[in-house]
């Protein structure tokens, strides 16, 4: 158990719809990253939030957006869903510090299916 | 360009034997971190071991050790005394960036099958 939770566990949407995925970080962690993992592939970095500000972004279009709240929980929003958005979405929390040894703790993921 | 390369899509190992999972990486940063994660069929990513680019000693965590060869840019995972519960996907990952922000880049993974 990493202390990171995600909801919902599974979700089915249709093309063009919007979806919001939620993540509750491990207590005390100030950073959350979101990843997309397509079937049979490694996770792809979407973006990272640190103290409620976006702190880095991968090669994902603007229809992928996020929020981080004062309690460090986080949301991933995806607008205008496409079939290729079907994937496992993972969030990972960490404590950004001066130390180089930053470990990320992953949640169980949300499986999104777009029909 | 592929930054993390795992050349073994699948590996078989006999229970109680050791197995090495290969990983090579590409970066121009001087400071970076290398990770191995295990992902069972449930989907959760489980942290196994970490190696910092400035660490001179190879990292070890129980039955896991990381064979770090910086000049060759390789970070192979060695699992000793394999157990049936080790059957899973294994991902090598590299963290780039610093306290100003970082991102973790994953390889395509190696699926390990442990035979009884």
Structure description:
The complex is a heterodimer of chains A (115) and B (116). Chain A is mainly beta and 115 residues long. Chain A has strands spanning 5-7, 10-13, 19-24, 31-37, 44-50, 53-57, 64-68, 74-78, 87-94, 105-106, 110-114. In chain A, the strands form two sheets. In chain A, strands 2, 4, 5, 6, 9, 10 and 11 form a seven-stranded mixed beta sheet that branches. Chain A has a four-stranded antiparallel beta sheet with strand order 1-3-8-7, with no helix packed on it. In chain A, a hairpin with a 2-residue loop joins strand 5 and strand 6 (53-57). By secondary structure, chain B is mainly β. Helix content of chain B is 0%, strand content 54%. Chain B contains no helices and twelve strands. Chain B has strands at 4-5, 10-14, 19-21, 24-25, 33-39, 46-52, 60-61, 64-69, 74-79, 88-98, 101-106, 110-115. In chain B, strands 2, 5, 6, 10, 11 and 12 form a six-stranded mixed beta sheet that branches. A four-stranded antiparallel beta sheet of chain B has the order 3-9-8-7, with no helix packed on it. The interface between A and B is medium-sized, with 30 and 29 residues.
């Amino acid at each position: 158990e990493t202390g990171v939770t995600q909801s919902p566990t599974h979700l089915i949407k249709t093309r063009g719809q919007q979806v919001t995925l939620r993540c509750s970080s491990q207590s005390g962690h100030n950073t959350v990253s979101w990843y997309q993992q397509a079937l049979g592939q490694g996770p792809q970095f979407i973006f990272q939030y640190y103290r409620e500000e976006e702190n880095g972004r991968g090669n994902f279009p603007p229809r992928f957006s996020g929020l981080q709240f004062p309690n460090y929980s986080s949301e991933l929003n995806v607008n205008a869903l496409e079939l290729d958005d079907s994937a496992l979405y993972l969030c990972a929390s960490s404590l950004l510090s001066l130390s180089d040894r930053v470990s990320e703790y992953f949640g169980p993921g949300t499986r999104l299916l777009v029909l | 360009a592929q930054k993390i390369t795992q050349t073994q899509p699948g590996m078989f190992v006999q229970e109680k034997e050791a197995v090495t999972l290969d990983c090579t990486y590409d970066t121009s940063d001087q400071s970076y971190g290398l990770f191995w994660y295990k992902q069972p069929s449930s989907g959760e990513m489980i942290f196994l071991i970490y190696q910092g680019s400035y660490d001179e000693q190879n990292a070890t965590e129980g039955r896991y050790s990381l064979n770090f060869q910086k000049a060759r840019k390789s970070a192979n995972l060695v699992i000793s005394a394999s157990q049936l519960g080790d059957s899973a996907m294994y991902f090598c990952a590299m963290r780039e960036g610093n306290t100003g922000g970082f991102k973790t880049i994953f390889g395509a993974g190696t699926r390990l099958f442990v035979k009884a």
